[in-house]
């Protein structure tokens, strides 16, 4: 990447059996991105229709200024794998990820590109199909519901406020790209990418885009099974793809929060509270490392020494809130210190 060339933008487009849309896609690319400081990288992900023939024919034309190249994968490996291949070849200052099926408008891609170029503080913009005041066509309730639920879970897990984590239109500065290492090969790549951007402390801006949903008959490839797999990927990127210190924090905070839950209810209700607080503790452990978690636990234990019955429950809650507040203040005051950052 960035090998001393003048390219300002690389547009990475995975393609799998999209022969009915490619001509229009190319026309739109020529309309909005026809400059010599832009490169278009198509990744033919093992297409079995005429997609590769159309792509090869396009390479022979001389009616565009941008650089154009194609990566041919012999077998279908998944959207994530195709994007990984394209990103490795990209040389631009900015990398724009664009789907080939025209569900998302190329005009919106151009608007996002102009926006990130005109503001040097912005390193990452995600398109959002839910923020838009633009045209939208989507009559698939289940897909829409799963997308919103996944975005909500992602926000809880990563303390974000994204409206559409699954949108395929994204633009990132090279500084972001070089910090991440993608590993998911299918549609879970969107979750993988978003989680790594957040982990590397880059702020994600969102931009409302148009959306024209395709039916299965029109070539829609994502299915309900991909929706279910996305829940697995959310758990994977949040609870398994962590450092050892973070995983220890998750375990520790889950245990002491289960202890908090044991002060609520009786019988089956008490068991339910323990489970709920255990889950809450696993999320808490993501944001607080061992030292700050220990501080929270100490306050909880002190609270458990006061009162009886409901009085003890109230005391535990009050001391938990106090410990949480002090831990957050501690993290904020020492977040710039690398030594304390890894402990708090």
Quick overview of this protein structure:
This protein has 13 helices and 9 strands. The chain has 344 residues and is of the alpha/beta class. β2, α2 and β3 form a beta-alpha-beta unit.
Describe the protein:
The protein is an alpha/beta fold and 344 residues long. It has two domains: 231 residues, Spore Coat Polysaccharide Biosynthesis Protein SpsA, Chain A, CATH 3.90.550.10; 98 residues. It is 51% helix and 12% strand. It is built from 13 helices and nine strands. The strands form two sheets. The protein has a seven-stranded mixed sheet, with helices on both faces. A two-stranded parallel ribbon has the order 6-9. Strand 1, helix 1 and strand 2 form a beta-alpha-beta unit. Helix 7 runs parallel beside helix 8, helix 9 packs parallel to helix 11 and helix 11 runs antiparallel to helix 12. The radius of gyration is 24 Å and the shape is elongated.
What attributes characterize this protein structure?
seven-stranded mixed β-sheet; 12% strand; alpha/beta; Spore Coat Polysaccharide Biosynthesis Protein SpsA, Chain A; 9 strands; 13 helices; 344 residues; single chain
